[in-house]
From TrEMBL:
Classification via SUPFAM superfamilies: MAPEG domain-like
Record-given protein name: Microsomal glutathione S-transferase 1
GO cellular component, one term: mitochondrial outer membrane
Source species: Acanthaster planci (Crown-of-thorns starfish)
Coiled-coil boundaries: none
Length: 150
């Protein structure tokens, strides 16, 4: 039976799992904003002239900052879809075990992607992180579509 749309931590263990992993990956994604800011300040690499008054030479690009930004952008391409698809998937009433494996593997894949991008680790480690997360999102989307009516 499909899960109730009125979800809470106490009465739906699958939603509890979803909420926990959603918070973890969202925090990880938000961390990359702070990490970008840290790199900008320590490398003196600013994007706007008002961020470095009187020092226009610091309005420049730098690969260490761009790398963190690319990593963050990749999270933005993958984590919001997880948040939407994961919630819809919870509403299809999956087993706790199947759902937790989806959420766990997605979270692990995004941590692998981040570590591989920022270290950087040799490919295909980053591609693996990206691909596994993508497969999980596709799997949840397919299950949502299959449990609905087109
Ligand atoms: N928007 C991505 C891109 O332009 O590369 C789509 C494909 C993708 O996400 N590829 C992964 C990646 O880490 C695995 S190679 N791409 C680098 C990036 O998004 O900066």
């Amino acid at each position: 039976m499909a899960a109730s749309i009125f979800l809470s931590f106490s009465d739906n263990p699958v939603f509890k799992q979803y909420a926990t992993y959603a918070a973890v990956v969202t925090l990880k994604m938000m961390f990359l904003s702070a990490w970008t800011a840290k790199h900008r300040i320590s490398q003196r690499v600013f994007i706007n002239s008002e961020d470095t008054p009187g020092k226009p030479q610091y309005v420049r690009r730098d690969d260490s900052v761009e790398r963190v930004r690319r990593c963050h952008r990749n999270d933005l391409e993958n984590i919001p879809p997880f948040l939407v698809l994961g919630l819809l998937y919870v509403l299809t009433g999956p087993s706790v075990s199947a759902a937790s494996w989806h959420f766990r593997i997605f979270a692990a894949s995004r941590f692998l992607h981040t570590v591989a991008y920022l270290t950087p680790l040799p490919q295909p480690s980053r591609a693996l992180g990206f691909t596994v997360g993508l497969i999980i999102n596709v799997s949840m989307a397919v299950q949502v579509i299959m449990s609905g009516q087109l």
